[in-house]
Amino acid sequence: MDNVKIDEVGYWSEVKLNIVREYAAAYSTIMNKQPEIRRHLYIDGFAGAGVHLSKETKEFIPGSPLNALNVVPPFKEYHFIDLDGGRAESLRRIAGARKEVFVYEGDCNGVLLEKVFPRARYEHFNRALSLLDPCGLHLDWGVVEAAGRMRSVEVFLNFPVMDINRNVLWRDPNRVQESQARRMDEFWGDRSWRDAAYVKKPGLFGQIEEREDMGVIAEAFQERLRDVAGFRFIPYPMPMRNTKGLIVYYLFFASPNETGGKIVKDIFRKYGNRGAV
Question: Mean pLDDT across the stretch 27-40?
Fold first, then answer.
């Protein structure tokens, strides 16, 4: 792992890894029992190096790619994408000689649309589970909408609260840099996030814009996943909190299938009951 940047992750990220791992195992089991499904894919758009360093224990822990590779029964194909060449090479070493593993060095927004999603077409009886877990506003809405319209792809998605709060959703929206607003446009799909995030109220000198609670904004994004992207089943997202109790991000799940939505809703509830939220 020399010269490879390894992410140090907190408890909330370890919870996320467990959630995705549990559902990936359930998903692969279901797909393997359906003879009409020709192949099912596991896709990781921001795969990292394959392992992480735990902030709590200071030990290496398996990342989502390694967890996926250990799922039984296995997926028919694995597609791991990372922008960093060192991390991509680490993924290749982890995959070893497994021919069903594909590693891409590049921007997942292009790689997914051009190379990976075409391998999961509904009409070809293929299906896919995709993890889209950026550390900030690095995911284009076009990818999410494409996945929803395919009807064959289920998605775990990181709604990056910290980046959004720090750079976009300021108390005075008129002070936000246009370049930061455009980043939010690309993630949200248009500038309707402004209407979702701010409500106009009367003030001493006319109307003022007051920012909504982040939970309200997350609900608006949930509606976009359903009404614009076309996903049919989107459980309420799981708020992932740091040690101070602040929400770091919301973990969304979106699926064309009711079964997937029910399973993930139960998994979210289980970890919520353990005090993970």
Answer: 97
Q: How far is CA 276 from the centre of its chain?
A: 18
Tally of CB atoms within 10 A around 148:
22
**Complete edge-to-edge strand list for the sheet that includes strand 247-254:** 101-105, 77-82, 39-44, 126-132, 153-159, 247-254, 238-241
Q: What is the pLDDT of residues 140-173, one digit of tens each?
A: 999 999 999 999 999 999 999 999 999 999 998 9
Architecture of domain 8-161+215-273: 3-Layer(aba) Sandwich (3.40)
pLDDT tens, residue by residue, 103-125: 999 999 999 999 999 999 999 99
Helices (H) and strands (E) in the chain, counts: 10, 12
φ, ψ of residue 14 in degrees (nearest 5): -65, -35
Q: How confident is the model at residue 183 (pLDDT cuts 50, 70, 90)?
A: very high
Q: How many CA atoms lie within 13 A of 220 on its CB side?
A: 17
Please state the domain extents for the chain. Answer: 8-161+215-273
Closest-CA residue to 168 (of 214, 223, 216, 215) = 214
Query: Which residue spans within the chain are E strands per DSSP?
Result: 8-9, 39-44, 51-54, 60-62, 77-82, 101-105, 126-132, 153-159, 198-203, 206-211, 238-241, 247-254
Round to whole Å and give the CA distance between 218 and 169: 13
46 contacts 82 by C-beta, under 8 angstroms: yes
